[in-house]
Amino acid sequence: MTSAYVLIKSDLGAEESIIEELQKLEQVVKVEEIYGDYDLIVKLDAEHSIKIREVISWDIKKIKGVRATKTLMKKEQE
Is the pTM of this model over 0.85? Predict the structure, then answer.
């Protein structure tokens, strides 16, 4: 199992609709609003890091209101 955290910058006022869309994704474990340079933090879990990259590129970045993302991938155990 691979985990990642995605920081999301959103358009002003778009947080709730983005959260609704994120919660539809199977790999999303948790979504929280945060203060600072980013507006949301999302925890993802998937079998492989490739799937996490696909979800970020093909799903999360295409959600209306998402301006930018930053991904923090958990180091896999050896």
Answer: yes
